[in-house]
Amino acid sequence: IQMLNQALRKTVIGTKYFEISALVGAREFDQRYEWSGHEPAALRAGVDQAAIDAIKFDRDVAGLEEKSATVILMGRQLFRGNHQLNTELWARAVRLFGPQGALEITMVMGDYAMAAVMLNAVSQQLPPGRPALLPSRR
Questions:
Q1: How far is 35 from 32, CA to CA, in rounded Å?
Q2: Residue-wise pLDDT tens digits, 46-91
Q3: Cβ-count burial of 1 within 10 angstroms (0-12 exposed, 13-18 middle, 19+ buried)?
């Protein structure tokens, strides 16, 4: 798992969209441990607070830059409903990120979804002193 995670950090999508993809995976499984590490990393990578908040609070992506909005929508379609991307969204992802980049976004989301499931299974808690940055949806 660690080898996969490290390989995915060398993607063509770059750090900014890697972090958005990781946040989407963490949020869809309400994984506070992963989120608490990746929200600060996303800010350092240049992700707008509005994009982070759209993921964190399940807000509309209207007004976000197109690439960020596309990644967020990809995650929402993959993790919700019928778990498939519609052809229009896939075509947009390929136009914006190239075929390899579009696939890598889905791989990063899948990797972080897998990590979230594992961490949730063992009830991983935040380390002492680490703030809970992700509010509960429940």
A1: 5
A2: 999 999 999 999 999 999 999 999 999 999 999 998 999 999 999 9
A3: exposed
